[in-house]
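Side project, low priority. Logging it here so it doesn't get lost.
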Amino acid sequence: MIIDNSWGGRLPLLAIGVLAISLDSAVFNDFHVSATTLGLAQIVGFFSALALSLPLLALIDKGMRILRPAHLSTIAVIALLVLFLRGGLLASLVQILGVPVTVAHLVTALFSVLALYAGYLWFVEPQRAQGRSDATRWDLFCLVAAGYAVLLRLLYLGVPELLFEEAYYWNYARHLAIGYLDHPLMVAWIMRPFIDLMGNTELAVRSGAFLCWLATASFSYRLTRDVLDRAAAYRALMLVAVLPIYFSFGLFMTPDAPVTACWAAAIYFMQQIVVRGKSRAWLGLGIAIGLGMISKYTIALLAAAIVLFVLFDRPSRKWLSRPEPYMAALVALALFLPAVIWNWQHDWISFSFQSQDRLASRFSFSLPRLIGNIIVILTPTGIVSVAALLIYRQQAWAGFSDRFASHTAATGTWLRSALLLTWLALFPLAVFAAVSLFRASKLNWTGPAWLALLPLMALLVTPGPAAGLPKLLTWCRQAWPPTIVICLLLYGAALHWLSLGLPGVAYPNNMHLIGWRDFARDVELLVQQSRRETGREILVVGMDRNRIASGLAFYRSQYLDAAGGNAGHDPAFETASEHLFGSVGLMYALWFPDSQQNGKTMLLVAKDASSLGTVQVLSRVKTAGEIKEIDVRQQGKPAGRYYARLVTGYQAKGVAAGAAVDGKPDE
C-alpha cells in the first residue's frame, strides 16, 4: 500500500482506523445486547469493520494493490490470525481481569486495527517485501510465527476450561504429597504456588506449563545455536513454539510439561559433554535427569540412552574413569529420593503401576496408532522432514555448512552432534515402538523424544539455494511455511471454539470439560439443597475413574470462591470417584478409602443414568432417591447431559437388605 508518509498523507489512514473501531464496537454492542454470545458478537463486529476498511484503503492506495487476488489471500490469513488472537484477548479481559465487556471490546478493536496494519506492512506491502533477502524474510517469518504462538497461548492460558487431566492434577496439588500413584510429584508442586497465589483458576493451574515451555524453548535454542548457528536456533525456537506437541505441552499443565523441560536440558548438557568436553555439564545433566524422574518416569529412557552412548562411543568412554558421571548419578538419585520414599511407604504401588501393571494389561497391537499419533503431534511435514534428514543427512548439511569459516571443523562438530542427537531420539522411539507391538500406545508418549532432532529439522526451515538438493529435502523446505500457518490457524480456531464458540460449530456431547463451570454450579446447588433437607454432609461421587470427580472438585471450588467463600466446605476433600462401588479410582482410592466412608450420604453423578442403578451401587446403600437430569451448556449451545442420584447409608462391604429406591425397597 503506497501512501504519502507526510502527516497529511497519514490522516486518511488514521480516519479509516477510527471508522473501523467505531463500526466494530457498534456492531459488537448491538449483537451482544441482543443476547448473542460473546464469540459471535466479536466475530461479526470484526468482519464488519474489515469489510468497511478494505475498500476505503483501496481508495487511498495508489495502484489499488490491496485488492489484488494474491494480496487478498494473504490478508485473509492475517485477518483470521488476528481474529483468533483478539478472541483470547477479549475473553481474558472479561473472564480473568473482570473488565466490563464494552471496555474490553474497545481494547480488542484497537488491537485488531494495529495488528492488521502491522501484518500488512510485514507480509503484504510489495515495496517492503521486495527489499528483503530470502534470509531476512525467513527470519521475520520464524520470529513472527513463534511470537504469535507464544502470544496465543498467553491470551488463552486462563480461558478454556480445564482438561480432566489438569483437574485431576489440581487435586494432586490440593492433596500435596511427595508421591502419587500414577505420576511423581513435580506437576503438583509446580502447580501449588500458583494456586496459593491466584486461587482455584485455570490460569493458576496452567501458568507452570507455560514456564516449563519457556525452559524447553531456552534449552532447544541453546542446543541448536551450539550445533549450528544463531539463525538456525531461531528456526528451532519456532518449531518448539508451533509444532502441535510442544504447543500443547506449553498450554496444558500435565506431567509432560516439566518432563519435556528436563528432557531438553538433559540433551543440551549431554551435547556439551560429548561434543564440547565440558566436565561441569555433568552436574547439569544430573539435575535434569533427577528433576525429570520426579516429573515423569519415561525420562528413564533418555537416561538409558545416555548411559549406552557413553559405554559404546569410544571417545566418550574416557569419562568412565573420571568422577563427574558418578557425581551426576548421585545428584539424580538424591533428587529422585522423594519418589522412592513415597513408594516404599505405599508398598511400591507407583513403580508397580507404571511397570508390571501396564505390561500385564491386555494385548493390543497399537503400532499403527503410534505412527498416527506421531503424524498428528509432529505434523506430516515434520515426520517427512525427519525421514528426509535421516536419509539425506550429508546433503542437508552440505547446503548449510558454507556459512562457517572453517568448514572442516564445523563438519566435525556437526557429525558428532548429529550422531549423538540421532541416538538420543531413536533409542526412546524404538522402545515406544516395541511396546506398541503388544500394548496400547498414547498420543503424548513420544513428544519429548523429538526434541533431540529439532536442530536437524532446523536445517530444513533455513533458506538457501535448493539447487542440487534431493527432491525430498526441497519439498520439505517448501512445505514448512504453509504447514506453520495452517497449524497456527487451527490452534486459534480450536481455542476460540473452546472459549467463545464458533458460529455453526456445535460442541460434542459430554466432552470434558466443556460447560463445566455451569454444570458444577448446578451440582453444588443440588449438594447444598440435599444438605439442608437431610441435615447431613454430602460426599459427591463421580461415577467413573477420575474424570467426573476431578472436574466437579475443581469447578465446585471455583464456584464457591466466586460466591464469596466455601463456608467451611472444600470440594477437593468432598468429591470421590467410582472406586467406592468396586471400580478403579487411581489416587481417589487413597484419598477416600472406602472403609472410611461407611454411613455417609452421597450424591452420585454419572454420564449414563443406568450406571446409577447397578447392583454394585444399590447393594452398598440403604436408600436411593430419584435420578435427576442436569443439562450442560456452553456459550448457549447444548454440550451434554449428566445424571445425579442421592443415596444414603453407604457401606463398603454391602448392605444386608436391598436398597430402598425412591422410598420403596429395591426388588
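Brief comment: Residues 663-667 have pLDDT under 50 and may be disordered.
Revisit when time allows.
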